[in-house]
Write a structure and sequence with these properties.
4-stranded mixed β-sheet; 425 residues; alpha+beta; 11 helices; 10 strands; 4-stranded antiparallel β-sheet; single chain
C-alpha cells in the first residue's frame, strides 16, 4: 500500500521549481539585473525603432551591411550596458571586467534569449559576445594592445570579430591556409576567411594564420593576431546572405599584405590554435544557451496561443495532437538546460569537459529547432508569418546546428572521448 501520498489539487498554485541546480546568488543577481536592463533600456529602443527593425530595406544597406541607423542603436545598447556594468560582467577581472565565469555566461544568455525572443534582436548586444567583444580570449593581450584597443572594446564603443573559418577549412580548422610570413619587424598576413560573424561592422578582427607550415616532424603552428579592420589590406569581399534575407552579419574576407607587429599577437606565437579552441568552446556554451532560451520562448508562445485559439468549439490546447509535441519539447529543453548548466560548471571547476560540452551543444541546438518547429505547427498558418517571429527563430537556430562545430563533428568528438575511456555519463 502506498502511504503518505498527497494527491495533486488543481486549485493549488503552480510553482516554478524545474531547476534544482544551485545557481550562486551573485549569478542570479547578475542575471536578474541584466534582464531588468533589457526591459528598461533595450525593449523601449526596439519600440521606438520598430519601423527600422521590421523592414529589412531599412535595416540593411544595398550592399547587405547593417544600416547606419541600426549600427547607432547597436552601439547605444552596448555602451549603455557597459556603463551599467552588465556588458562586460563575464569578462575577466584582469581585463577590467566583472570576472563571472562560464556558468554565469550560460545562465545569462539563456535568460536573455528566453525573455527577448527573436523580435528584440538588440538584446544580444546587452552582454559581450565572446567573438564580438571583450572576453577571456583577450586575456593575453600585449601591454600596447591593452592600452590602445581594450578600453573601447570594454566600454562598447567598438567591437571585434573572430576570423578562423576559411573556404577550405571549416570543421577541420587546424588546416587553415592563411599565412603570416615573417618580415622585418613582424609578419605579412595573406589569406581568406569566411563565416566571420560581425566582420562587416567590426573594428578589429582576431585573425588566425599559419606562422610555421607543417613539416614531416611537426604540425603547422598557428598564431592569432589582432588586426584593425581599417587596415588597407583587410577587405570584406561580400556579405554572406542566408535564408532569403537581403543582408546579414556573416562575411567573406580577403586579407592581403596586412603588416602585423609582435604587439598584435594574441597570446603566444605558435599557440593560436589553443585560443581558437577556447573561443569555439565559448561559442558552444553561447549557442546551447541560445537554443534553450529561444526554445522556451517558442513553447510558451505556442501554449499561450493554444489556450486562446479555438477549433471545433474548443481551445486547441484540448487536443493532444497539438499539445503533446509541445510537452515533448519541454522534456527535451529541460534536459538541454541541465546539460548546459552542468557543462558550464565543469568548466568553472577547471575541467576541460570536452565530451560534456559537445553533448550539451549538440543536444540543445537540435532540441531548440524542434521546439520552434513544433510551435510553428501549433500556430498553423500564423506560425509562418513575420509578425509571430517563429520563422526568424527557426532560421537562427537552424544555423547554430552548424556554427562552432556541426552536430556530426560534436558526435565524433563524444565518440572519440568515450573510445579513449571517458565513458562517465
Amino acid at each position: 500500500m502506498i502511504r503518505n501520498c498527497v494527491p495533486f489539487q488543481e486549485s493549488e498554485p503552480i510553482m516554478s521549481s524545474a531547476i534544482a541546480f544551485d545557481i550562486p546568488e551573485d549569478i542570479r543577481a547578475a542575471r536578474d539585473g541584466l534582464l531588468a536592463f533589457a526591459r528598461d533600456e533595450v525593449l523601449p529602443r526596439h519600440a521606438r525603432h520598430h519601423a527600422l527593425f521590421e523592414d529589412h530595406r531599412k535595416l540593411y544597406h544595398e550592399s547587405g551591411r547593417l544600416s547606419d541607423a541600426a549600427l547607432a542603436v547597436i552601439r547605444e545598447v552596448r555602451m549603455a550596458s557597459a556603463k551599467a556594468g552588465f556588458y562586460q560582467m563575464c569578462t575577466p577581472t584582469s581585463l577590467g571586467g566583472g570576472g563571472l565565469g562560464h556558468l554565469a555566461y550560460f545562465v545569462c544568455w539563456q535568460a536573455l534569449f528566453h525573455m527577448c525572443g527573436p523580435h528584440n534582436s538588440m538584446c544580444v548586444y546587452a552582454l559581450s559576445h565572446w567573438a564580438f567583444g571583450p572576453s577571456r580570449l583577450l586575456e593575453k593581450l600585449s601591454d600596447r594592445a591593452r592600452a590602445e584597443i581594450l578600453a573601447p572594446l570594454m566600454d562598447g564603443t567598438r567591437s571585434m570579430c573572430f576570423g578562423l573559418s576559411e573556404p577550405d577549412a571549416g570543421s577541420d580548422a587546424s588546416m587553415i591556409a592563411t599565412r603570416a610570413r615573417p618580415v622585418d619587424g613582424g609578419w605579412l598576413v595573406d589569406g581568406r576567411k569566411i563565416w566571420t560573424s560581425n566582420s562587416p561592422i567590426a573594428d578589429y578582427c582576431v585573425v588566425f594564420a599559419v606562422t610555421k607550415p607543417k613539416t614531416a616532424d611537426a604540425a603547422q603552428e598557428i598564431t592569432a593576431f589582432l588586426v584593425p579592420t581599417s587596415d588597407p589590406g583587410f577587405e570584406v569581399q561580400r556579405i554572406v546572405k542566408m535564408f532569403g534575407h537581403i543582408g546579414g552579419d556573416e562575411a567573406e574576407l580577403r586579407l592581403e599584405g596586412i603588416k602585423v607587429e609582435p604587439w598584435q599577437v594574441v597570446g603566444e606565437v605558435g599557440k593560436g590554435f589553443d585560443a581558437a579552441l577556447y573561443g569555439v568552446s565559448l561559442g558552444r556554451i553561447y549557442n546551447a544557451a541560445r537554443a534553450v532560451g529561444t526554445g522556451r520562448w517558442a513553447v510558451e508562445l505556442a501554449l499561450d496561443y493554444a489556450k486562446t485559439r479555438k477549433a471545433f468549439g474548443k481551445p486547441i490546447a484540448d487536443y493532444q495532437g497539438v499539445t503533446f509535441p509541445l510537452a515533448e519539447s519541454a522534456c527535451e529543453l529541460h534536459g538541454a538546460h541541465l546539460m548546459g548548466l552542468n557543462a558550464a560548471t565543469l568548466l568553472d571547476q577547471g575541467h576541460r569537459a570536452v565530451k560534456e560540452l559537445s553533448m550539451a551543444k549538440a543536444y540543445a541546438v537540435q532540441a531548440g529547432v524542434r521546439a520552434v518547429d513544433r510551435a510553428m505547427q501549433a500556430h498553423g498558418a500564423m506560425g509562418f508569418t513575420n509578425e509571430v517571429g517563429l520563422v526568424e527563430a527557426w532560421s537562427r537556430l537552424r544555423a547554430v546546428n552548424v556554427a562552432d562545430g556541426t552536430n556530426e563533428i560534436l558526435y565524433r568528438t563524444v565518440l572519440q572521448r568515450m573510445l579513449k575511456g571517458d565513458v562517465d555519463l
